[in-house]
Amino acid sequence: MKKVLSIVAVAALSAAFVSCGPSKEEIEAKEKAKADSVAAVAQAQADSLAKVEEAAVAAAAEAAAKMTADSTRMADSVAAASKGGKKH
Fold first, then answer.
1. Residue 88 pLDDT more than 70?
2. Does any domain span residue 50?
3. What pLDDT does residue 87 have?
4. Distance (Å, whole) CA 80 – CA 15
5. For residue 18, is it within any domain?
6. pTM of the entire predicted model
7. Domain-embedded: residue 13
8. What domain count does the chain have?
9. The domain containing residue 30 runs over which residues?
10. Residue 76 exposure: Cα atoms within 13 Å on the Cβ side
């Protein structure tokens, strides 16, 4: 009798564990949510890298413009000094 009760108890517990687990739809929904989350993080990372690259390009352009302006100012200064302009 004890063996029969043990077998019935084990069967009941096994059925309870199986029936309490997530359904196939719940598992798929969880996986989709995880994939969507990963995709959102990847998109945010790509956007961030693009913004940093844009800033680097803008900084390089600004530096090039400043160098050009400095070179022009220096050339004008040298030209004025060689023509007998202002004397320091």
1. no
2. yes
3. 53
4. 97
5. no
6. 0.51
7. no
8. 1
9. 25-82
10. 6
Q: Where are the extended beta strands (E) located within 34-88?
A: none
Inter-CA distances, 50 with 21, 23, 38, 57, Å: 43, 41, 18, 10
Task: Output DSSP code: residue 83.
Answer: T
20 domain-assigned: no
> Between vectors from CA 70 to CA 84 and to CA 87, what angle results, nearest 5°?
20
CA 24 to chain centre: 31
Rounded CA gap, 34 and 39, in Å?
Answer: 9
Contact 22/30 with Cβ under 8 angstroms? yes
The two most distant CA atoms of the chain are separated, in Å, by 122
Rounded CA separation 78/63 (Å): 22
pLDDT digits (tens, 9 = 90+) for 7-62: 888 888 888 777 777 788 989 999 999 999 999 999 999 999 999 999 999 999 99
Euclidean distance between CA atoms 30 and 14, whole angstroms: 24
